[in-house]
Fold each of these.
Amino acid sequence: MEQVINAIVLGSCYCLFALGLSLTWGTLNVLNLAHGAVFMFSAFTCYLITQRLNAHIPLWVLAIIAMAVGAILELALDVGVFRPIRKRAKTLRDAELAMLIASIGAATIPVTIAQQVTVDSPFSITSTAISTTEFHFGGVYVTTIEIVIVAVTLAATTALALWLQRTRNGRALRALAVDTGTSGLMGISQSRLSALALVFSGASAGIAGVFLAIFLDSLTPESGQDLLLKAFAAVVIGGVGSVWGTLVGAMILAGGETLVSATTSGTWTDAVSFALIIIILLVMPSGLFRRLRVDRT
Amino acid sequence: MNIWYEAHATLFQTTAIYVLLALSFQVVLKSGIFSFASVGAFGVGAYTAANLATRGVPIIVTLLIVVVAMTAGGYLLAIPLMHLRGLYLGMVTFAIDEILVVVATNGGKITGGAVGLFGVPLEITTLGLGLVAVIGVLLVSQLERHSVGRAIEVLRGDEQLARSVGVEVGNYRKLIFALSAALGGVAGALNTVNFSTVTPGSFGFTLIVAGLTMAIVGGIGSWRGAVLGAIFVAWFPAVSSALGGYRSIVYGVLVILVVAYEPDGLLGIIRWVIRGGRGQLARRRSAVPAPAGAAPATPPGASPAASADGSLASASELGRRGHDATS
Amino acid sequence: MTPLLDVTDAKVHFGGVRAVDGVSIQLQDGALHGLVGPNGSGKSTLLAALSRMIDLTDGRLSFKGHDYQRDSAPAVARMGIGRTFQAVRVMSSRSVLENVMLGADAGVFGPGIVGNWLLPWRTRRHERRCREMAMAAIERLELTGMENHLVGTLSYGTQRRVEIARAVAAQPAVLLFDEPTAGMNRAERDEVAEVMRTLQAGGLAQVLVEHDMQMITDVCDHVWVMNFGKLIAEGKPEAVVTDPAVQEAYLGKRGEEDVNP
């Protein structure tokens, strides 16, 4: 039962991280491989702050800082890297490949900085600032932080889903995925939309960073890269472009991993995400939920 | 001169191996196949070579085995995978590579587990590496000529068009995928017998990123780009050692700049320089790609200057940009 | 006399949509037939089926007596059925000659990737033959002197001619045209019509899918009219135009087809 709680919390973190990836990929055709670096760097910034200030900083302050850092970083990515590429590329496919590579290049910046500062040793955010009250549910212990993580995830997922469906900006963003001309016709500039998407993406990466830093108790500058593939698995399982799908996918992934690490020696855990990716893409390429985009070439 | 060479022998060796790796990426990317499977092949080739070399198998035989196995395996693997397009194929092959890393980490005696295998007999010279790299270049360069070159260029941008002119697209894609695997496998095998070790960390995400960068930054339009990219990635750390740990940032920024501003990579930049910057700019502006929409617009007039220096009778030899604008 | 192209009861159904619903037509050697119909009539789908870009749900396609409805599109192209596309599709960063040689490749059995490596002499021979056929097509389409021009720098009408040269280079027996004059002015359309007449004089059988009835009347010996996936009329252009069934099919859609820009 303890494991189930773990899986749920882990899955929530995965989901938060994956939401950003799913959003940019599903609507902007950008597979942002710098997302992991942003996640890590946001957590890293919080780590630096807690270290340097040596004071008790409430969780919600850290969360806001992380979200801000993440949002700023990804916005910079959009303006400085993705937009010039999109402007110059001749075809969509060329643009995608170029943005992919460029995001890899961009990722080296935060990762290298973190590597230099931490001298490649792990860092974490100790939860001294957060009261760890434990609750008992039928003999199981659940800490405050775990509840917060799950609650935030549910809130963020719901908010994003509603935003995409109900608001004008959200619908325009969804329209972008199908046809780049439509949202222009709706009177909303594409650059504003991509900025919005990346701000959200960065913010969600940031908060996921803080949460995972606390929950896993140890992050390295490379942690973000590992997480990318898992996020990809979550998105693919659920179906690109489906917000709830990402949540479901993340939970399935976390559940699978927890199961594997509990029953085997633990070195096979990473293989779960990889195997899921292969299986889903070969057997059920559109994921569990219907895909947002009509044709994905 | 000799001393300098000796001091940098490792770099030359690495360059040769990187050339093969870069070619394995270039060859698939130019054809529109987003496959990173050659890195998985690198790993399989590397471990195979380690096991065979320690048992006294001569390198030639090992290479032959690797080539045959990777070609056959690659071809078979391509059958289910060719239905996937774009980034999806990329991610599946990425996942396959990572699973192979996990397998290698858990491989017990065959792979040496997380620690890997050491003390593999050195079976190749720098010259030998160079020779294999040249062979690789020769093979790939033939793919840019004649009917094969035309077929590959068209099937990348417009599959329907390719079919309508008799190009068996499925066949080509499988063969190219297999070739990419073979190149990757050979690169891996050579890496093991040259550096005497192989570990799970020697392939996987880092190598994918390296190979991808080599191919894209160098320019995927031609094997020349792959070679340029290989040299760039191999020599950059040495050339930029003054920057210390922060050189990765310079590297990353360079990658971004090249990718964003010169999609044809270093090769495109060099060509631009050779043709005399300005003239090229004028030619580019007038060479508007053929529109693919239902309401086509006439390109803004064929400028006389453009047609005049457009004598590219030997164009097929140059392997110009692999772009086809009609997609 | 065995028709060159024999279509028997062709059906193309997409789920509930019957794009082509039981069409039977024959094309004789050297004939120039038109295929018309209002939007959604299925004519483009039929063309796609004829060139094997899409599968038939039912029915038979026969070329020189050989049933080809299960052959692959590239095989059919090599067999002698060529086509052009509605929007010009060319390799704009390559020269006219290279583009046309791409078409010629279909007419010469090439060595493929492995052959390229192992049989260089055969490859050279193939390349020579390819070039000859391409130059012949370039001459036929009056593009001589432009071989080395980048296709991307040419006018739309010329690009269309390059595309036709490409299709012709393989010396096909049948050439399918999918709305070749879309977006062209009167002069350019006349150019294309002239090309088609020249090709017909050279013995090439052609199928022209078109919206421009003027052009159909100008060049075609015989016209098929489709509506809702079925063949509703066929015959000489003048007869078909006055056919009441045809006029009813086009009722309310006259404006588009009738316009002579």
Amino acid sequence: MKIEILFPEYGNLFGDLGNMMYLKACLPDEEFIETSIDSEPAFVTEDVNLIYMGPMTGKNQEAVIQKLLPYKDRIEELIRKKKCFLFTGNAMEVFFREIIDGERRIEGLNIFDFSAVRVSDNYYTGNYYGEFNQRKVVGCKIQSSMAYGANEHCYFAKGIRGTGINRSSGYEGVRRQNFIGTYLVGPLLVMNPYFTQYLMYHMGVEKPKLAYDVAIKEAYHQRLTEFENKRTVME
Amino acid sequence: MKKNTSGFKDSILKWIKGGKTAEEAFEHIQRPEKLVFITGTKGKTTVLKLVGHVLRESGRDFMWNITGEDETESPVSVLRAGKSISGQSGCGLALMEVDEREIRHICSKIAPDLLVYTNAYSNYWDQKGSLEGVEKGVDMSAFENIKMISNEGKDKIVSVDTAKMTLVLQMAEKMEIYRLLGCTKADLDNEVLAIELLYQLGLTYEEIAAALDSAEPFTICRHVDTVGSKKVFMCRGEEQSPAVCAHVLEWIGRQSDDCAVVLMDYKQKEQVRASENTAWLYEVDYTPLNRTGVRQVLTAGNRCYDYWLRLLLAGIHEERVTCALRPEDVVKLADIDEVENIYMIFTRETRAKAEEIKEHLLQRIKKEEGIK
């Protein structure tokens, strides 16, 4: 099994490489490929079970778009073939139609018909509590942009509390087949044991086993208890 | 997005309180001959205090915004007052610590002659793309016309001898030997940065080296209590600051004792009414706690299980980690028989609780060691 981490020198903000740290602990015998921005992504020529990228700066986002643009057809083919993709934080915006930054419009890969709008003067921070595949999902948000587009039928998580892809939506992230893009950081896999199991299963792990399962579940349940308490402020 | 307070509302509130708006505050500042801003995520106060010590020792007068052990005044207020440390007006040199979240704005209003950026490395620019990209997205272009000193000058370090506590730097065309003030990477960075700044301010090697000999060594630990054969060290961390946390952990990792470490560097306010974002834990290197002498790591508060998982991922053995959902339980859960020392890492917000726990720990140690 191969897991490709795209451009870790860029997609490393908000501790989100912790996602891969945890996945490595769950899958110690599998191959993790770290592809730098100067190299050709492994997914172009190889069979990869998961492609991951984490949040980055706006400037690096533009470099990543240019880098991935030549592989757009291949990415769409892999999505159709139900390969797993996980793009956290603003990494998912690379696949949008566009990113708006004040007067500037940055063209994305246009695989999802969404716009991201950057707001440079402040970061939005908060917590999110929602549902994915009939399981509760928890996550944190640290972002300087929000997404606009109809994700009611292609969301990652349905909101219970907290803000979705933008202030007026409770639906968080985008999903098509096994492509999942989400603003949730924290890191997502560390905070959501059941989602991590789900992901590993769809990557091809027959009986997904969580590393440090007692600790990860304790942390998850503790956070669930807090999020279910209406007095807990979400942002 | 977070709600923006309107400029109008802000001005009215300040007017009601009799204060000045931010724009007005910059008016009527008498610019000193040399203005230095020191900013960054970690090490600002340390660098500023060290530079201040050397300047004092070498008989220079200056203005600065240090007001207490760890407290600073607004740089604008100090510049407006225009009083130096010796009480003189119209001093030619001003050294100001500036919060990294405000540096861009302040530089746009009053550009310094020198900007010292602590805790920033050449690969930091590549990784984050911009200074403080995580917090504020400060773009480097904001400082294009300002002379900057940062840790990129680390190539000046020739050798470090932690046994003799000496540091050799290659400055211009000669080797210079200085007293080493601390052993961690951050200590070294801060000292080199201070030396570079002092050179820029016109001091000589002889002046700097002589003053460093009488400087206080850098310390992580703010206070030590000794009871019988055991010590409790109070170490100041900072909420959600990977740089500060890593510095403290590195220091503990360099000790050679049998110890317990209590992690209380969480955000107290968020423990009460919200749920703390713990993403920052994954930007911290916890491996220094992997040394054999660290017998126990106690994680306290609502996020204790998040810390637990993070420590396990850093390779710390499960048996060594103890969770105390109620921070008070640290007192009874600490394996005091197994250790010589206890390091408590606290923050400004958790200080009171940490002090309370420390007092109870000391009492327990006294009782168990039969000390009256």
